[in-house]
Amino acid sequence: MARFDIYNTLSRSGVAIKNLSVYNPLSIRKKGTRVKAIFALGMVCFLWGTTWIGSREGVRHMPAASSLQMAGIRQFIGGFFYVIFFLVRGTTLPKGKEWIPIVVLSFLNFMISNGLATWGVKYITAGLASIIGSIFPLWLVIIGLFTTSGRIPLKAILGLLLGFAGVCIIFYDHLNDFLNPEFRLGILFSLIATWTWAIGTIYTKKHAVNYNPYFSLGLQMLISGFVLMTFTEVTGNAVPLLKIPWQTWLAISYLVIFGSFIGFIAYLYALQNLPTAQASIYAYINPVVAVLLGWMIFDERLTIFIGIGGAVTLYGVYLVNQAYKQQ
Q: What's the predicted TM-score (pTM) here?
């Protein structure tokens, strides 16, 4: 018997099946802009949640130290096509000091954050990695406590406490796992990835330049991908391209096509046609998708501690985001 009886679930919740036809992807082109935007947001919520699964599957078939190579290949391919797209459309390359924030953000957000997050799922589950990845707004509050002269919103402090309380609940279920040095390494890599992403977020706000942010994103990926591939080659941790397992190439292809291209295009469409607060809900749904798919595909542990801890953590992150949006 199937794990989920979708029809009965929807019927009990009072949702008429015929009303769902408005989101039918086969007829979505005939619908209005708002319906298309909601459909696009639904794609983002699902696709970006599956990127944790794709990364987990890719590194499973690679030596641990070669995880950075996989991240680099993914970034380089994605960045290459982004850059080509904008160059063909006549976008000019950055000049002079415009390169500085691009290089800095390439280092913080891609070489370190994405690179270590990819390496981290070699040692911990995709679901756990996704929940840790979602807590980076909490670090913004902590950094703000030491760097901001103004008053930190009370809601942000409450969100910070709830967020870390949720993490503690989750880790309670993994106390025995901390005896495993590889598990500790995976947690450390994942946490460092959130720290550098938070620092990158603050840097972006303080050093934003009047330059196409989407082209900048492609350049950041291209630079980071080249550096990571070169680094693994120089350190002797690279796997010859022809010897990379087909499962890893399939995972990289999925991450580039569905994570970088389709997911990002869908997100931009949703962001342009929906309120920002509504478009941002993907950040709270992605970890749920990753946890459930990790349980179904990789048989990852799904317990009451992970469920409650994950919910408390995400609610804490939500309070932090709401506090700064109101401010």
A: 0.83
